[in-house]
Structures are given as structure tokens and as C-alpha cells.
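Study this one:
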Amino acid sequence: MTAPRPDTLPLPTAAALSEGRGSGAPDSCERTSAPKTGPAGTPASGPEVLTFGCRLNAYESEVMRRHAEAAGWTDTVIVNTCAVTSEAERQVRQAIRKLRRDRPTARIVVTGCAAQIDPAKYGAMAEVDQIIGNAEKMEAAHYLTPRPERIVVSDIMAVQETAGHLIAGFEDRARAFVEIQQGCDHRCTFCIIPFGRGPNRSVPMGRIADQVRLLVAEGFREVVLTGVDITGYGADLPGRPGLGQMVRRLLAQVPDLPRLRLSSLDPVEVDADLLELVATEPRLMPHFHLSIQAGDDMILKRMKRRHLRADIVRIAGDLRRRRPDLALGADIIAGFPTETEDMFRQSLALVDEVGLTHLHVFPYSSRPGTPAARMPAVPGDVVRDRAARLRAAGEAAMAAFLKSRIGKTAHVLIEKDSGGHSEHYLPVRVEEAAPAGTIQPTRIVAVEGARLVGVPLTATPPAPES
């Protein structure tokens, strides 16, 4: 898989999809929304979805919510789980128990990767009414005619296709996600997700273009292409089109799409077509996130990654030569089994060496069932210390990058509360912002904590303080 995302940002759910913090993230998967309530705190009658984990889960939650609404489900909460680490699952189980306390009469349906990988574990929870698998959760027929069994989970490794889902929009958001690929054929030693998602399956180009065209017609100004391993796109399709070719054709077929973003990229799979687009296509946003995981060759080999340190440096250089002002993010695991202090410093040095500003950092968390779980562990206090040092380096790099944007122009996609994100996926508070969904040309005038402050180019910048 492209990247383990135990600290994937808390995405809005099903009903509210955006990238949240983008490339900064908490230490673990978090609930992306809470169940809604009606007047005086009474439970809402319609279906709710609680989403944990990755952007792909967030996209799928929107599909599930719409299937459940169309089927007339009421007083039901669907919990879309994450299984990337043991900590992620702990948070899921904790949320389910709290949900039952808060909503004693609601029907609780559990799905997602954790349910797919170990349905018996969730079947043993008295709070859960039904468990459905990752394939079943996307099938409209399951909602129209629910199967009576308490556990409905099929063999995900036998699934050969992605289901087609056209979504006309995402509530209250200016940015939308489009699934281009499912599953993963790689077997990183720390990762259990291929067993929750199944083999690599690509969505045909025409279906992707149809989805994006529909979203643009609904007023969305930015689309994020997402999946489990998006740089593996096309390997299973006739002619084996790569990600770059698909993106090129998508932008040609949907000329009215103003902004396109990509989720995590595997460094070894970035193709020549995509690199050319980085240089020539202004609608492809200048913020790229690399699935690095470590900066030491021995650790990368023990992770069973397909790249080495030199490959990371090379692809970062290739990207910067084509678009010098771009922002680079990365996933890095701190304290992987057998990691020594010298090995860790190789990862730490990458932050400055390749100019990483949007950092996903998380302490290694053992996942039962993975080869890494059987390797000699690094002491917990050392893991936490290394994660803190990586975060500090990332925060310093981000602070410097934010400061460097003062005086420059940014085109901010206004989302809500007078703010949004720039091309580089930097959070910006815009004074006298345009309505949500507008791309606002903005002059950056200050840094305010972890975000920028800007004024519309049509406005007069405030005088500097004396």
C-alpha cells in the first residue's frame, strides 16, 4: 500500500469531506464526525456515519450514507473503521461503546477494514448489531435488502472490480474526493491493510471523468484523487495506463475543473507522464505527499519498501526541478523495530535534505498479523521521543515555509469560516473572504499560529504595526 495512515487527519465524514489538516496529523486515526442529534438532543432519525482513518474511507462513507438514506434506514449509525494500527482499532472500539451509551435505541452497523480483517472481534461486542465487509458496504442492494445474518463479510481477496459510484456532491464542502483505485498488491511488513482492501483494482478512466464532470457541474472547484495505492493505478487495466496518463486524460476531458490534487504517492512509482504534468499543468496543485516511511536503507528493506533513501532524494529533486515552489509532504514512521539512533537520524535528516514541510509523523504501533510485529521492538519511550523529535523538525520546517509566503499571492479555495487552503495546501484565514466554494486571489500579509492570514487582492492590505 502507498502509506499506512494511522495518523491520517480527522477527515470530515460521509457528509462532510475535506482534507482537514492535509499533511499534518494527530497520532492516530480519529473519528471524523459525531452522530447528529435532533431537537433538544434527541437522536436524529436518519442514518449517520462515523468515519475513522483514511480519505478513501471518507469517500466511501458518503456512498454508504446515500445508500442508507435511499433505502429508508432510520435511527442507524454506521461505523466505518480503520485497522492500520492496534491503536486505531482501540479508538474504534471505544467509540462504539460510547455510541451505545449515547444512543441506546440506535442500530449500530460496523464495517471498514477492522471489521473486514477480524469480524469475529466486533461480533463479540454486545453493542454491535451487524458487521458488514468492505465489499458489502458499497453495494446498494445490501441496504435495500439487508441480509439477516449478524456477520456479512465476504472474501475481499476474491474481489476483482471496483464498484461504480457517481456522487453528485459532498455536503457543505468546496472540495470533493474521487476514488480511482482500490486495494494493494504490495506487502509492507508493517501493514495489514491489503487484507482489508484486497488486490489492486483500478477504476476505468471514463468512469473517473464522469464522476469529476458531475462534481464540477455541481460547483466543486477542487477534486482530490484518492485510493489505497494510487501510483499503482492502471496495472490491471487494458494497456496498463499509468497514473500520469490517466491524470492527463482527465484534465483534458474535464477542462472546467480548476484544481486537482493527488493523495499519497509511492516514490518508486511516480511515472514520467506525471512528472511532465507537474511542470506543465497549472491545474495540478503544487503540493505532493510522498509515502517515505523511513530514511535509512536497512529499515526500508526491513519494511519491505521498494525504494531506498537515494530514490527519495531523487524523486524529490525531480519534482522540485519541474516546479521549484512546490510543497512536499511525507509519511514517516518513528521507532520501527530494530531502528537504532543512527538509523533514526537518517530519517530526521530527510526533513531538511529534501525540504519536507507537510509531515505525517507517527510512532510505530505493532499490528498483530504483520511480519514487523515479530521483529525486535524499540522501547516505547524511545519510540515516543523519536516521534516528538520528528514532529518538532516538521513544525519548524512548516513555520519557516509559512513565513516565506508573506508578501506572496495565494489562490485560496474558501471552505468555511472565512478560510480555506492555498495551492500549497496551507491553511489561510482570509479577511472579508468570498463565499465558500470560491477561489479567492489573496495577498498573504501575516502568519497566525499554524496558518496564514491574507486579504483579497481587491482589498487594501492593513498597515503594518508600528
Q: What stands out?
A: The chain is about 30% helix and 20% strand.
